C-alpha cells in the first residue's frame, strides 16, 4: 500500500504502553461481549499479546494517521454529495486494555468502534492474531481495511443506520454494510491517492474471508448455525467489500438496500 501522498489525520491518539492498570467494573462482561463482536472476531480464548518494554513504534502511528486521513478525505467528500457535513471520528491505538465511552475493554475484543465517544479502538497486536490464528493477512492494505470497516460503523451512526442493530439479523446487515463502506472508501481513496498496489486487494479479501461467521464457527469445531450469525458469511463479507470497491456508490438509496433485501434461511442477505 502506497501512502506517500496521503494526509496525516490529527485525530489519532497513541495510548500504547499505558494499559494494564484499569479495572473492569460491574456489568463489563456483557459490554465487552458486544464490543468483541463488532469486528466479527471472538478472541475470548486468545491470550492477549504481552506488552513490550520498548516505546511504541512510530511507523504504526504514522501509518494509522495516514489511513485515517484518507478516510476523512473520502467521507467528507461523500457526505458533501449528500448535502451533509462529515464529523470525523477519533482513533486510539492501545495495548492490553483501554477505558472508553463504552466501558473498559481488553485487547482480546479485537478492533471496535464505540458510538458514545465516536472513537475507533485498535490494539495493533490484533493483526498478528488475524494472520497467525485466524488465517487472515497483516499486510498494510488488510490493516487499512480493518480501520475502514470500523470507520464504516461511524458513518452508519452519522447516517442513522446504527440504531437498527436490535437483533442478529440487523447486526449482520450492519456489518455487511460496513464491509461495503470499506470498499467504497477503497474505491474513492484509490481515485484520489492511488494507494493500491499489486496484492493489496487480495490481502483485504483474505482477511474478510477469514472472519466470516461460518468460517469462525467451523474453526471453533462447531457446526454452522445461521441463526447465530452476527456479521455474515465469508462469501458475503468478501462480496460486499468488492461491491463497494467496484461501484464506490455511497448513496442513501443503495445503503438502504442492506435493510430492504430479504435474508435467506442460510443467513445470507440477497446479493444486489
Q: Tags for this entry?
A:
two-stranded antiparallel sheet; protease; 8% strand; globular; 272 residues; single chain; four-stranded mixed beta sheet; alpha/beta
Write up this protein:
It contains 9 helices and 6 strands, in the order βααβββββααααααα. It has one domain. A 4-stranded mixed β-sheet has the order 1-2-6-5, with helices on one face. It has a two-stranded antiparallel ribbon with strand order 3-4. The chain is α/β, with parallel strands linked by helices and 272 residues long. A hairpin with a 4-residue loop joins strand 5 and strand 6 (119-122). It has helices spanning 28-36, 58-81, 126-132, 140-159, 168-193, 200-210, 213-219, 234-247, 252-256; strands spanning 12-14, 90-93, 97-100, 103-106, 112-114, 119-122. Helix 4 packs across helix 5 (168-193), helix 5 (168-193) packs parallel to helix 8 (234-247) and helix 6 (200-210) runs antiparallel to helix 8. It is a single-pass membrane protein. GO terms for molecular function: metallopeptidase activity. The chain crosses the membrane at residues 20-41. This is YpfJ protein, zinc metalloprotease superfamily. It is found in: Membrane.
Amino acid at each position: 500500500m502506497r501512502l506517500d501522498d496521503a494526509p496525516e489525520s490529527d485525530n489519532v491518539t497513541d495510548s500504547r504502553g499505558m494499559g494494564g492498570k484499569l479495572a473492569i467494573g460491574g456489568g463489563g462482561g456483557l459490554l465487552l461481549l458486544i464490543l468483541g463482536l463488532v469486528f466479527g472476531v471472538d478472541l475470548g480464548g486468545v491470550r492477549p499479546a504481552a506488552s513490550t518494554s520498548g516505546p511504541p513504534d512510530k511507523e504504526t502511528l504514522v501509518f494509522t494517521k495516514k489511513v485515517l486521513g484518507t478516510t476523512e478525505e473520502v467521507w467528507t467528500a461523500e457526505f458533501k454529495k449528500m448535502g451533509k457535513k462529515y464529523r470525523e471520528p477519533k482513533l486510539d491505538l492501545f495495548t492490553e486494555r483501554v477505558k472508553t465511552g463504552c466501558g473498559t475493554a481488553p485487547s482480546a475484543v479485537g478492533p471496535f468502534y464505540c458510538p458514545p465517544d465516536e472513537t475507533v479502538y485498535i490494539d495493533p497486536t490484533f493483526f498478528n492474531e488475524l494472520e497467525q490464528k485466524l488465517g487472515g493477512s497483516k499486510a498494510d492494505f488488510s490493516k487499512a481495511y480493518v480501520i475502514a470497516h470500523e470507520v464504516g460503523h461511524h458513518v452508519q451512526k452519522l447516517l442513522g443506520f446504527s440504531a437498527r442493530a436490535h437483533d442478529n439479523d440487523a447486526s449482520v446487515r450492519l456489518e455487511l454494510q460496513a464491509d461495503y463502506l470499506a470498499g467504497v472508501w477503497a474505491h474513492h481513496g484509490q481515485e484520489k491517492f492511488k494507494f493500491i498496489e499489486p496484492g493489496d486487494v487480495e490481502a483485504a479479501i483474505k482477511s474478510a474471508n477469514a472472519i466470516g461467521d461460518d468460517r469462525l464457527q467451523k474453526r471453533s469445531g462447531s457446526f454452522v448455525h445461521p441463526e447465530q450469525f452476527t456479521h455474515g458469511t465469508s462469501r458475503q463479507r468478501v462480496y460486499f467489500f468488492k461491491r463497494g470497491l467496484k461501484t464506490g456508490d455511497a448513496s442513501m438509496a443503495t445503503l438502504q438496500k442492506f435493510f430492504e433485501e430479504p435474508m435467506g434461511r442460510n443467513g445470507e442477505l440477497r446479493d444486489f
